[in-house]
Each structure stands twice: as C-alpha cells, then as structure tokens.
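Deviation from plan, reported transparently: S-adenosyl-L-homocysteine complex.
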Amino acid sequence: MDKKTGTAAELIGRLAAGERLSLDEYRVIIEGQNEKTRAVAASLADKVRTEIYGRDIYLRGLIEIGNYCRNDCFYCGIRKSNKKCDRYKLTKAEIMDCCREGYSLGYRTFVLQGGEGIFSVDEICELVSSVHSAYPDCAITLSLGEYPREDYARMFEAGADRYLLRHETADREHYEKLHPPSMSFDNRMRCLRDLKEIGFQVGCGFMVGSPFQTSLTLAKDLKFVADFRPDMCGIGPFIPAAGTPFENEPPGTAEQTVYLLSLLRLTQPNLLLPSTTALGTVDPDGREMGILAGANVVMPNLSPVAVRNKYSLYDNKICTGEESAQCAVCLERRMNSIGYRIVSSRGDIIK
Ligand code: SAH
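Because the crystal trials were delayed, the predicted structure below was used instead.
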C-alpha cells in the first residue's frame, strides 16, 4: 500500500472534509472496514445528513406493478428463465387503487417498479399521466429497466419525475459476470446518461456482496457516484434467490451495506439514500441501522398483499404479508424509536 494514501480512518476524515478521493483511496477505505471505521463513518455521515435534511425521513410508496421480465440477470428472482417464479401483471385499476391508498396514508411519491417489457411504452405513459393528473402534488418514480432514449423522453413528457436504474456495478468485467451477453454495461450507462440529460432525477445503485464483487469493484462504484452525481443511490445486500444461477451464493452483510451507505453520504452529502427492504431482510434492525449510518429514505410496500410474495427478487423478503397501513405504522414506529421522523412530502433532493 502506498504510504501517502493514509489509513482508512484518515481517508474517511478527508472524504468528510469534502476532498475527492482516488480509486485507490476508496479501495483502502473499503478494505479497512471494521467496527471502529464503521462507527467513524456513520457518525460523520449522520452529521452531514442532519445538516442538510435534519431528522426527516422521506417516504416512497413502492408499487410492484408486475414480475414478468424479458431479462435474465443471474442474481434476480424474477429473471425470465426462473420457472419457480409465479408471474403477475397488475391492471391499471389495481395500480390506481394502490396510489389512492398510499395517498390517504400520506405518501407523496409513488415508485412504479417491475420487470422489463411487461407494459408497452404507451401503457406506461398512459399510466403515468393518469397518476399525474389524479395526484398532481405527488412525485412519480419509474423503475422499469432499460429503454431507448426516445421512450424515456416520452415517459418524462407524460409526467414521470424520477427514474431508478441501478448501475449494478461500475466495473465492466464484473457487470458481464452478473448478466447474460444479451445485456451490456455500455447500454446500462447509456440509459443513465440519457435519463439525466432528459431531466429526470436519477437513481443509480448496486448490490453489496454480489458474486465476484471485490474491494476494487466497490471502489469503482463509489467513484462512479462521485463522478456521475446521481440524485439517489439505492444499495442493499445481495440475497440469493431460489431458481437462479446464484441461488447458493452467500448473501451480502448488513455491516458492509451500512458502511457503504455512510461512505456514499460522505461522497455526496445531499444524496437521497434509501435504507432498503433487502437490508431489513438480512438483519431485523437493518433499516434502522441504515438510517443511523446516513440513509434518509424508506420505501414501504404499497403493492396489493395478494402479489407481494410473488415479487421475490430474492428469498425471505420481509413485509410481504401486511397491508400497507400496517407497513406505514410499523416503519413510523421504527423511525421514531431511533429519533427520526417520517415526513409526508415529495422529498425532493435539496441542492
Ligand atoms: N427491472 C428493473 C427493476 C427491478 S429489479 C430494473 O432492472 O431496474 C430492482 C433491483 O433489485 C435491481 O436493480 C437489483 O439491484 C435488485 N436485486 C435483484 N435481485 C436481487 C437479489 N437477489 N438480491 C438483492 N437485490 C436484488
């Protein structure tokens, strides 16, 4: 190790002071993860987050609109070739019902997520404009995968405000080990650039502990965020899904995930950072740990209870049995118990 790069704790301090770090420095921080560096990173991250967002936690209502998918990502439980996946597609009326329920519970952002190619672009645009005219004070986020630029532009015109498309990994070779040859790193990156240029608030992100991930690929993920400057970054531990090529791979850890949440917060202080369901799945206190480490968003499930266990990106997902109202109350209680409060607002990024 190059001496002048310093120890992980020193580097975390430099990151918190607003310095840009090199790839190698990020790698040193990642390799230096232990109880002490996690605590240092979390307390600095909590401080910068509180300076910008206070103790407010933003809510996003997640509506899983369908689990058919044309893609075959090796890690994903709803991949095309998973014969164990019981497929569904919500109707427009069902989706509007989810929004109505969500609105009455205080949600002001709806995230429409699903497998790819279930709905035509016309259907997506019609859906977006219906939600937009019914709830003009709400933000609409789409998380529906890769499309040509013109299609993204139409979705934006129809009233979508934000788009989540995790980059999955910023290392090309790693990307190729997680996806079949029909998918490409270049197209993923092209999508993210197009979305930003069109004017969406854009979210990227990656799994923690995915197969073949190394400290170098993670360093590239952090550097990518530093350079791309997204509005959001979604990260959660990889969790093996039955019926996929990675079904016997070990899951990512809550500890590494919260460490990375803190490092993301320090890399870009105003980032919208969700404490994800996957984090709550690997550890019962995962979502609280994520907030305490610098996250400021939670995404409770607003999908109809009847389909929740079918949208299994990974095994043993939590919150598949309760109705939306129960999820909202439960999360509110969890956030209050650690000194944060859930606010009912669109929760746009503060620039
Ligand atoms: N099809 C859309 C959205 C659905 S997948 C898209 O491609 O964006 C949403 C996210 O879930 C993925 O980006 C991936 O990072 C995550 N995911 C998929 N399988 C997972 C698994 N086994 N463990 C943890 N996260 C997973």
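The mean pLDDT is 96. We consider this an acceptable substitute for the interim report.
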